[in-house]
Amino acid sequence: MNTQIDNEFTFENLSLVIDVSDVQRILGIGRRQAYELVKSGQFHVVKTGKRFKISKEVFIGWLNGTPLEEGVSNVWLSK
């Protein structure tokens, strides 16, 4: 995804599945911080190979303070 900050940024413009660079851009944090957050278990993440993917809906819910549902865990898929 484009790493430039878009003045017309809206959540509607995001694809259904976002990645670490999107998290970084949305929150205005560094790459290392974005990876730490994604790996923290605060919201559901799917890892395929070396890539982390997050549902836009889950991420927005996390931003709004919706807790991770009990019994939901991160999914790590091998290549």
TrEMBL record:
Record-annotated Helix-turn-helix domain positions: 19-64
InterPro entries according to UniProt: HTH_17
Domain of life: Bacteria
The protein, known as: Helix-turn-helix domain-containing protein
Lineage of source species: Bacteria, Bacillati, Bacillota, Bacilli, Bacillales
